[in-house]
Amino acid sequence: MKTLISLLCGLIFGAGLALSGMTDTAKVQGFLDLFGHWVPDLAFVMGGAVLVTLIGFRMVKPSSSPVFADRFELPTANQIDRRLIIGGVLFGVGWGLYGYCPGPAIAALAYLDWQAGLFVLSMLIGMGLVDLLSGQTSE
Amino acid sequence: MNFIQPLLGGLMIGIAALLMLAGTGRIMGISGITWSAVSLAADRAWRWCFLVGIVLGAGLFHWLSGQATPEPNPAAWVWIVTAGLLVGFGTRLGSGCTSGHGVCGLGRLSKRSLVATLTFMSSGIVTVFILRHLIGGYQ
Fold first, then answer.
1. Which residue among A17, A54, A92 places its CB closest to the CB of B58?
2. pLDDT tens-digit profile of A106-132?
3. Any bridge partners for residue A73, and if so which?
4. Interface contact flag, A53 B47, Cβ < 8 Å
5. Residues B120, A52, A65, CA angle at the centre, nearest 5°?
6. Diameter of chain B by CA atoms?
7. Which domain holds residue A34?
8. What is the residue-averaged pLDDT of chain B?
9. Nearest CB to A48: which of B7, B25, B60?
10. What is the ipTM of this complex?
11. Whole-number Cα distances in Å, A57 to A53, A90, B100, B101, B111
12. How many angstroms away from the CA of A133 is the closest CA of chain B?
């Protein structure tokens, strides 16, 4: 049942990304072009999504358990540290450079263009590189 | 300006995140789910179902609506690889992307996620400014 719900979440999320315009790199870069030819449309994507989570997450009680799992597994980290900031900066540079963040890049695999495939492959390698680096510089 | 489609798409993204939290007890963070799907040994089924759902959902949207798929960004492969590496490295180092920190983290009123979101948004805006207005686009 958990896998079925996950599949359903993926379907809604993927369709929502495509409908919203997030899989269109030109629109994403236009949205990030705040000091140039700003295209504000995609502000409504984050606005609509956060509106639902802000209200909806209040109604999910962490004291109970999820419908199809034993317990909630939520992030516990709350520190604002160097990793968070450096990670955010690097992610933003990559996002601006090409116009894909992880979700839309994966959704765009449906378009069967080689670009999305190469992007996702590079993204996975980038994720793996963190282990390599933190293995050398772990405190 | 077209805000109806971005808003509806954003609401769908929020609903997917809410369904995932209430149904499976998990945060719908794409970068984290993707990395766990390829790197973890156990509990991978629901993650892969979600990822396959994203691709199917995006494909189904264009198929059923008849809306053309967006043109891929014409940047050369070097830009794609660089951007992909940065997005992968940055999201893993910073523990999240637009969905985990943005959509879900803001919905949970997490200060850490707010800082992450402001960081990658700012860095994306600066990157597009440099790319489009200082170096004049993809060279």
1. A17
2. 999 999 999 999 999 999 999 999 998
3. B26
4. no
5. 100
6. 47
7. 2-137
8. 96
9. B7
10. 0.96
11. 5, 29, 13, 14, 16
12. 10
